[in-house]
Amino acid sequence: MPLILDGKKINSEIRQDLSTRIAINLADGFAKPCLAIIQIGNTKESTKYIEHKKKFGHTIGAEVLHIHLPDTVSDSEVLKEISSLNTDDSVHGIIIQLPLPKHIDRDVLVEAVISSKDVDGLTSENIRGLWTNDKGYILPATARAILTMLDYYDIQVSGKKVVVVGRSTLVGKPTAMALINKGATVTVCHSGTVKLADHTLEADIIISAVGFPRLIDEHCVRPHQVIIDVGTTFIKDEEVEKITGDVDYNAVSQIVAAISPVPGGVGPLTVSSLFQNVYDAYLKKIGK
User: Fold this and answer.
1) What is the pTM of this model?
2) Per-residue burial over 277-288, b = 16 or more CB atoms within 10 Å of its CB, e = otherwise
């Protein structure tokens, strides 16, 4: 049986660590770390994800502000909210919950968040820091979660061949660059890559984040590999809605050395990694 990369376990340890650190800061007279979430519209999945963030923030002693705007709001109205949060010293992190209504310019809103509060790591300044490997940039939460998982299980990255399947701004691209910064040799593929297995079979580590159910099957893997499944797709199985990843878990887990499950792998770690970003921004603000 392979090593199961348990995101729930790591998430629990991060939760306890952040809770302890925040309690110490509060005892020293500092305010709570604060994350502001801007939601536009009423997308069911967005509301669910925000509730997870609120719950996690509450358990660690952080404050979470939920600014919920109607889907008829204009760019200029959202920009006013962002400007107010940028200048509010009690707010340490700002995220714009995706997806957004079609009439909203995502890039304009993201770029309006000051880089020190951009805990999603999406502003051009933070992306530039990632590309140049400067100190102090903020790495997107899912990419941070992946690196945390690899580090927690002492999985060597430097000198290894890594295939990242997925090229999104939130996950694929920042994960690939972060791994390059750590000394890995990285190949980026995607759902349209011809003969995907030719690439994945050469890898020491496969990270898949495309949201394509069972894209990575037994023909894409070999013994001794590490598989991190970031994909999440909701499918109906006998009228019951279930979540599945990019990896055919039952088949692949019989072959590889280590694998993260879906659910219970990277997913739980993404929220805790977001709050690690918030806490890092908070520490810089209070000068600790």
Assistant:
1) 0.95
2) bbbbbbeebeee
